[in-house]
Specification:
mainly alpha
Length: 86
Amino acid sequence: MSDVVQKVVGAVAESILIIVSNPLDAMAQAAYRQAGFNRERRHRNGGVLDSARFRTFIAGRIGVSVENVTAFVLGGHGDYHGPAGA
């Protein structure tokens, strides 16, 4: 990440970095720090996708429409391997 960010920002100081990685939050933060961008140039939305997946999982599990479920994932995420013993 560091090598790529240095090359991109070195070539185009006003570049826009779109980070697609796992873990998203940690890598986006690392890129932000490495780039030296000010706070206003930092945006990320990995939690939106995780929250949508979480809502879908809950809706399917309890048999309701995803539109009737409100849930949010906060913080970093990792691989889900299912319940122990599954």
